[in-house]
Amino acid sequence: MVRLDLLSQEGRQIARRYDVSAIPTILVFDRGRGPVSRHMGIPDREKVVGKVPALR
Questions:
Q1: Which of 56, 22, 28 is nearest to 42 (CA)?
Q2: Rounded to whole angstroms, how far apart are CA atoms 14 and 43?
Q3: DSSP state, 38?
Q4: How far is residue 28's CA from residue 55's CA, in Å, rounded to a whole number?
Q5: What is the distance between the alpha carbons of residues 9 and 38, in angstroms, rounded to a whole number?
Q6: C-alpha span between 54 and 22 (Å, rounded)
Q7: How many contiguous H segments (helices) and E segments (strands) does the chain have?
Q8: How far is CA 9 from the centre of its chain?
Q9: What digits encode the pLDDT tens for the residues 36-55?
Q10: How far, in Å, CA of 17 to CA of 47, rounded?
Q11: Residue 42 DSSP one-character state
Q12: Strands 34-40 and 25-30, how do they pair?
C-alpha cells in the first residue's frame, strides 16, 4: 500500500498520471499491467480485500 500526499509535487504528478480526480481514490495494480481496479470515495473494506487476493 502506498499513500500519497496530493499536495506535494510528486503526489500531484502521480495523480495526473493515473487520472485521480477524487479523494480518496484506491487503485489496485497488477505487476507489469498497471492499474486493474479503481474505486473513488470511501471504500467498502470487504470489496477491496476481495479484489486483492484474486490478483495474486
A1: 22
A2: 20
A3: E
A4: 9
A5: 22
A6: 25
A7: 2, 2
A8: 18
A9: 888 888 888 777 777 776 65
A10: 25
A11: S
A12: antiparallel
Rounded CA separation 37/16 (Å): 17
Nearest 5°: CA angle at 49, between 43 and 26?
40
Grid cell, residue 50, equals 476481495
* Cell 485521480 sits on residue: 20
Quote the cell numbers at residue 27: 487503485
Task: Name the residue with cell 495494480.
Answer: 29
Check: CB of residue 37 under 8 Å from CB of residue 50: no
| Structure confidence by residue, pLDDT tens digits, 1-27 | 778 898 999 999 999 999 998 888 888
Q: Which three cell numbers stand for residue 41?
A: 470515495
